[in-house]
Amino acid sequence: MLHSLSIKERTCSCCGKLRPIIGYETSEELEYIPAQIKVKVHEREKCGPCNCGDFEDSEEAPIITAKAPSRIMPGSIASASLLAFIITGKYCDSLPFYRHERIFKRLGVDISRTNMCNWTIKTALKCSDLID
Fold it and tell me: What is the pLDDT of residues 52-97, one digit of tens each?
């Protein structure tokens, strides 16, 4: 973020000319950006049957739908990033599921401890091949 001197501040009091910029003095500041949860909506395109006369005699499916993106747990609302947050919090930061539950409630999302526990177990089972 650039902080500039005003024209009045840069004006030389002796001759009235603008003083030249000779460099910048920098400082750093850490800013905390609070956690947020976003709902990603996946819309999968669906196409109906063709209106041509030959379509009825063909063996093509009358309705086709685009493939859904792959997920660690199909049918679950948990994304890979949410699972990583929960598991890292649990095992690296010693944050129990009841505290995760309170954090999510403050963010406006209701995720039960039971779900988090089940997701953690299922993720561990899916990753067991990587560990072995």
Answer: 777 677 777 778 889 989 998 888 999 999 999 999 999 999 999 9
pLDDT digits (tens, 9 = 90+) for 90-126: 999 999 999 999 999 999 999 999 999 999 999 999 9
Distance between CA atoms of residues 22 and 132, nearest Å: 60
pTM for the whole structure: 0.72
Identify the residue whose tokens are 């129990």.
Answer: 96
CA angle 6, 11, 13 (to 5 degrees): 135
Residue 49's pLDDT band, with cuts at 50, 70 and 90, is confident
Give the start-to-end residue ranges of the domains of the chain.
Answer: 79-132
What is the 3 state secondary structure string of the chain? CCCCCCHHHHECCCCCCECCCCCCCCCCCCCCCCCCCCCCCCCCCEECCCCCCCHHHCCCCCCEECCCCCCCCCCCCCCHHHHHHHHHHHHCCCCCHHHHHHHHHHCCCCCCHHHHHHHHHHHHHHHHHHHC
Instruction: Give how far the C-alpha of residue 17 lies from the chain's centroid of Cα atoms, to the nearest Å.
Output: 51
